[in-house]
Amino acid sequence: MRFVVIYLVLAIIIYVRGICPVIHDRRKRLWCLFAVLPGAFFPSVTRFIGGSMVAPDLPVWVMYAGSIFQNFTLLVGILVIGREILSVPLRIIGLPFPYLGRSRIVAGTILGLSVAFSCLGMFKSVISLEVVEQEVAVKGLPAELDGLRIAQLSDLHVSSVFTRERVEEIVERTNALSPDLIALTGDFVDGTPEKRGYDLEPLKNLKAKYGVFGIEGNHEHYVDYDGWMRFMPTLGMTWLKNASVSVEINGKTLSVIGLTDPMAQRYGRELPDIVKASAAVPEQTSFRLLLSHQPKYAALYAGKADLMLSGHTHGGQVLALNPVVGKLNNGFIRGLYDVGDMKLYVNQGTDVWNGFLLRLGTVGEISLLTLKRAPETAVVAATQDK
Fold it and tell me: Taking a C-beta distance cutoff of 8 angstroms, is the pair 304, 286 a contact?
């Protein structure tokens, strides 16, 4: 519902501050407003006609076209607001901001940039898929685990846009990396098992020497949660719901711990419980890998895991939105972070939610993380810094 309100507010801002100062003829103003309204109302279409806001079920061409209009409204709104913010220092130093607001050159630039990046951003959100490699230096990592390769997939968001063919491509490219272990960190799907289960079936073909592990995300809660909880274990992965599994690697024990998603609170379902999830972890375990969809809770788990893998943020999707995404996720947007003695890696989203098909400055990501033993000098230096 927030999307519906946000886009309608953006349309008002665009009309009052973007159109009216430049176009004085009322009829032309209305024509300009009509160019903005399809994007402003597309979230309402997905909310009230397309099944639901969180899991739109509309033909792919409708999602593509609607997303371009929606992106256009968003980007025009951001640029108009940016121009307004820029006016503050300009007015303070006495430069002619009123002319800037009425300039058709500025308005034309905003229009051109918005059209170009609306199309480019939608296109990138649909086709972008890159392997992002990252070394993770871990203090005290046993030599036997040095070089272990973990592939991470997150936020597949299977839907009318991201179908079986896309999942097959992701599986093929992931297997080509020959990872030792594969982790899938939630938001697999938008829709019902009856309609989207077929699209997820290629996940059965994921291969890793020490196993494939999965957890839920917030989107699993939105449509037929119970059905998905029955379906996910049939995909050949070890499904972790406040639970753990330990594997022996070169004589050392690695424990994979999986949490439920905090969205469970809204529906009266099982909340994340690190104590319960870790109850079966052997005392002699050498490495704790924690899977938790939302990164903003990482500080709660510092000291309880060596490496936490998350997704959820889609890397911010648009660089201009990083301040907002960071604020909503305690500063965690994408990439590797230190959270106390724990490492946190946030995947940019292998795909994105089909209700917001826009990527600018981010990529669809298959993460390949290589564990490395931190040099002793780094350990000493880190201790001294504290």
Answer: no
| Amino acid 45: pLDDT | 84
In whole angstroms, give the CA distance from residue 178 to residue 75: 40
- Residue bearing tokens 């309609």: 195
Phi, psi of 339 (to 5 degrees): -125, 95
pLDDT above 50 (res 113): yes
3-state secondary structure of 86: helix
Give the per-residue pLDDT at 385: 42
Q: DSSP letter string over 268-300?
A: T-PPP-HHHHTTTS-TT-SEEEEE-S-GGGHHH
d(CA 179, CA 97): 56
Query: pLDDT by residue (tens digit) across 273-305?
Result: 999 999 999 999 999 999 999 999 999 999 999
CA-closest candidate to residue 156, choices 301, 333, 293: 293
pTM: 0.91
- Are 44 and 4 contacting, i.e. CB atoms less than 8 angstroms apart? yes
Q: Are strands 181-185 and 212-215 parallel, antiparallel or unpaired?
A: parallel
Tokens 């109302």 locate to 41
Q: What percent of the chain has pLDDT over 70?
A: 93
Burial class (CB in 10 A: 0-12, 13-18, 19+), 110: buried
Residue type at 154? S
Helix (H) or strand (E) holding 327: helix 322-328
What number of other Cβ atoms are within 10 A of residue 202's Cβ?
Answer: 18
The angle at the Cα of 182, spanning 179 to 187, to the nearest 5 degrees, equals: 145
pLDDT confidence of residue 26: 85
